[in-house]
Amino acid sequence: MDEQAATIFYKKYSPQILRYLLKKLPKEDAQEVLNDIFLEVVDRIIFVHDYKKIIPYLYQTAHNKTVDFYRQKKIKSLIFSKLPFLELISKEIDRPDFQYEKNQIRDRIETTFHLLSSQYRQILHLHYEENISVKNIAIILNLSYKAAESLLFRARKSFKKIYERV
Hints:
The protein has 166 residues and is mainly α. It folds into two domains: 3-78, RNA polymerase sigma factor, region 2, helix turn helix motif (Rna Polymerase Sigma Factor, Chain: A); 84-165, Arc Repressor Mutant, subunit A (Orthogonal Bundle), CATH 1.10.10.10. It contains eight helices and no strands. α4 runs antiparallel to α5 (99-115) and α7 (134-140) crosses α8. The longest helix has 29 residues, at 54-82. It is elongated and about 55 Å long. The chain starts with a helix and ends with a helix.
């Protein structure tokens, strides 16, 4: 899709998609998600062969992006509630003038993660990246609930300790 066609497409469909998003998201977030939707749809519109399916495709993408937004928000709040020191890191990462520092922090987090024992890496991955509850982690790792809870606590504590040293 050329630039002019993309602009026309955006102007034609963005108001109705934005109205949909405003019912589900705060205004600032709705605008950001709207832009993400149109960037994705413009890249993939060649796969929509039936013109009648464009609007449903836009709404489905809007729905998926809304779900992703809340999933990311939930994961972020869960991580910050369990690992409050990461809030400090996230504030540093969000500052636009710290791209170099951003990369250093990301590298530091990755290094820290890789310095953890495989058991700690596994439980942190399951809980924070896969969003699996402690109860289900206990089942997966063949542990009691209390043992899984304790392991997760020790993994977080170890992560924090290593992060402070790296």
